[in-house]
Write a structure and sequence with these properties.
The protein is globular. About 40% of the residues lie in helices and about 15% in strands. It contains 12 helices and 13 strands. By secondary structure, the protein is α+β, with helices and mostly antiparallel strands. The longest helix is centred in the first third of the chain and has 19 residues.
């Protein structure tokens, strides 16, 4: 079913309001989720709404939590999300880092005792849209084994970096530090696809391509693990992905005063950590020179020789931007399983269910979209 982004945002907000989330926080969460769907990162869009609705209802997420300041300087701030929703706490954090970056040249913020915050790129782009560059990271529930290891020790630990290279189209890189996200495997499983060797290991640390066992094993925390970016061992750079995941974990765990690795979830709730760094381009060079050089770099990359069978060299974030423009115009396609789950959530929350976007507005619009699942 293809739906209008405004209708989807309103529906998501109403469901969160129905379980006790404030209007302000429900609006923020809905915006972050729909932003993911617009950019084609469907695994982190409204498909995650169940996680938040059930989390609030079960008492795992506090709907009334308020983000508090633990320590602050002119350029830094440490925040406590109070086991609340990750998106409102993260918007508070990145906005404070932006303000400090504008004032001092660079601003940093950390968040502890938080929950899942959606796509990291949302917050990096929030800074880039205000003229600052940004580095954003978060840790997550353990699903990834270290290089040469056999047990999940880290999350997929996404890292996002954005630069204000263009007012309408900032550069943004947003990716997991694992070779593949679990959502990608779940999608392949639903569609009867195959997974490649080097994406995951079984409890003995041996490479496996058995999607049902891997997906079920990850959900049940039964010893199966994804692998770091680069895959099995060191021959294709798996140790580099492991190193990047460790960097994100250090920023978002020990430095943020949050829990880390296997300890991010406990009896007292979530203990995820987030990290935000925002800086002024103008503190280091002129904005005009930076943008001119960056865009010349991008033009040269696009014009570089293509590999056989390829017609484009893309810049990070380009496909997602194109998907967003298309989905703003033609609607967001929701898979049948997501439509069914959203209908159940609507019924449980006493909310009017979603309807499809009128065909006169949605059109066909299916070509060229990036429907690969995100981090």
């Amino acid at each position: 079913m293809r739906v209008d982004h405004r209708s989807l945002r309103e529906f998501t907000s109403r469901c969160l309001l129905a379980v006790g989330v404030s209007t302000k926080d429900a609006t923020v969460v809905a915006d972050v989720l729909v932003a993911a769907d617009l950019r084609g990162v469907d695994s982190h869009g409204v498909a995650r709404l169940r996680r938040y609705v059930d989390g609030v209802r079960d008492g795992a997420i506090r709907p009334d939590a308020r983000t508090t300041v633990l320590a602050e300087t002119a350029a830094t701030v440490a925040l406590d999300a109070g086991n609340g929703l990750g998106q409102p706490a993260s918007c508070t954090a990145v906005d404070m880092a932006i303000a400090k970056g504008v004032e001092t040249g660079v601003g940093m913020a950390t968040v502890r005792r938080s929950n899942h915050f959606g796509i990291a790129g949302y917050y990096a782009l929030r800074a880039a849209s205000r003229g600052l560059f940004a580095i954003v990271g978060t840790n997550a529930s353990p699903q990834v084994a270290p290089t040469n290891g056999a047990a999940p020790m880290f999350g997929t630990n996404p890292l996002a970096v954005a630069f204000p290279t263009d007012a309408d189209r900032p550069f943004v890189f947003d990716a997991a530090t694992s070779v593949v996200p679990r959502g990608r495997l779940e999608r392949l499983h639903r569609e009867g696809g195959d997974m490649r060797a080097g994406w995951a290991v079984d409890p003995n640390g041996e490479s496996t391509t058995d999607i049902p066992r891997v997906v079920d094993g990850l959900k049940a925390r039964a010893g199966y693990a994804l692998l770091p970016l680069g895959g099995l061992g060191e021959s294709h750079g798996g140790h580099k992905g492991y190193g990047l995941a460790t960097v994100v974990e250090l920023f978002c765990g020990p430095l943020a005063g949050a829990r880390w690795g296997r300890h991010v979830y406990g009896a007292e709730g979530a203990g995820l950590g987030h990290f935000f760094l925002c800086g002024q381009v103008a503190a280091l060079t002129t904005v005009a020179d930076f943008q001119a050089e960056a865009n010349q770099m991008f033009d040269e990359l696009r014009a570089s020789p293509k590999a056989r069978g390829q017609d484009r060299v893309l810049i990070a974030g380009e496909r997602e931007h194109e998907t967003e423009q298309q989905r703003l115009a033609t609607g967001i396609p929701l898979r049948p399983a997501v439509v069914t789950d959203l209908a159940r959530i609507a019924d449980q929350c006493g909310v009017v269910p979603l309807g499809p976007m009128p065909m006169s507005r949605s059109g066909l619009g299916a070509h060229g979209e990036n429907t690969d699942e995100g981090d």
